[in-house]
Amino acid sequence: MTDLKRPKALFFDWDGTLADSYAFLNDAHSSVLQALGFTPFRKDEFKDYFGKPREILYRQIYKDKSEDAKILFEAYVNENSHKLAYMPGADALLKKLHEHEISLGVVSNKKGSIVRREIENFGWGGFFGVVVAAGEASADKPSGAPLLLAIERAGLKDRAPHVWYVGDTEIDLHCAKEANCPAVLVAPHGPGEIKIHEYNPIKIVADCPELLEFLVALNP
């Protein structure tokens, strides 16, 4: 690890990595479930769906009412997006990486119009050269396709091994592995049930400040 160099580019997952959105999404889906006549999520029930591909998530939660749920969910987000916060230290992390001229991007399973609006709401529009969201690649995460598309859009196709992907779930690690990119796992409570030996992330960090400390210490 002493010879590890700072990456040329860092691409990030969105929800749970940069956006502190678990509680917000839990409340949003609970509101939609109730509106459609389902039982709202109890505490921590949404964790089984967090980060899953958008189409799979809606089918599993809402069954044959998926299309109605999408409309209600987007309405909820539009009305309440001001409640969403970013992860502690995320703003400082992105500012420092931007100062070091490291290319930045977002690869998310969230709908594009929503994730791009949330990026703008945080004042981060100038940080990310590329954003790839749900349905924009041939497949969503855990496929490596959206990360490979982001790399291509960023003009880094020949430098994939120098592009790191940062995420908080096994879905993100699988995506990075398929795209042949080094991965960093953000895991405040450790990797849990994730089979780390299958993915061999470069680093496991607890939060954005720890990631920033790790990156700054690397050789340019």
How would you explain this protein's 3D organization?
The chain contains eight helices and eight strands. The protein is α/β, with parallel strands linked by helices and 220 residues long. It folds into two domains: 145 residues, Rossmann fold, CATH 3.40.50.1000; 62 residues. Strand 4, helix 5 and strand 5 form a beta-alpha-beta unit. The longest helix is centred in the first third of the chain and has 15 residues. The radius of gyration is 17 Å and the shape is globular. The model has no long low-confidence stretch (mean pLDDT 94).
Concise summary:
The chain has 220 residues and is of the alpha/beta class.
Instruction: Tell me the total number of β-strands.
Output: 8
Average residue-wise pLDDT: 94
SS element count, helices: 8
Question: Helical amount among residues, as a percent range?
Answer: 25-40%
Query: What is the 3D form?
Result: globular
CATH architecture of the largest domain: 3-Layer(aba) Sandwich
CATH class of the largest domain: Alpha Beta
Enumerate the spans where pLDDT stays under 50 for 5 or more consecutive residues. Answer: none
Instruction: Give the H and E element order.
Output: EEHHHEHEHEHEHEEH
Number of structurally distinct domains = 2
User: CATH topology of the largest domain, which one?
Assistant: Rossmann fold
Ends: how far apart? 14 Å
Class from helix and strand fractions:
alpha/beta
> How are the strands of the biggest sheet laid out side by side?
5-4-1-6-7-8
Question: CATH superfamily assignment of the largest domain?
Answer: HAD superfamily/HAD-like
What is the alpha-carbon Rg in Å?
A: 17 Å
How much strand?
5-15%
